Structure prediction request, 133 residues.
Amino acid sequence: MNKHKILLVDDDDAFVESNKDLLEAYDYEVFTASNGAEGLRKLQEIRPDLMILDVMMTTRTEGFNVARTARETPEGQSIPILLVTGVMKAMEIPDSLTSDNKWLPVDRILEKPIEPATLVKEVNKIIERKGEK
Prediction:
């Protein structure tokens, strides 16, 4: 069986490297991008089983735009998006973000910093759900 492919889009090198190693240890094939444009390009090329996406990269809201743009492409419509971000703390947003079909079309939102076990659990859950569809 082929390995499940994950696209990790984040500009924090330490976060990318540690989580790439973590997910590869769980037998995922991990591709990385350091900004939204590169992430969207790789989304088209790789067609991953899951995209893990940061919000604050080139701009403070880049990840939100990437999620919306991804959903507008045929390839990106069916790829689950896991938003892993510190935007709520950084921008002092009092409540948690909620996904919806228009403004924030993601499957799950997790706040940074994230425990490695939590990330793996969420990734496994999303991949399993995608396999059931």
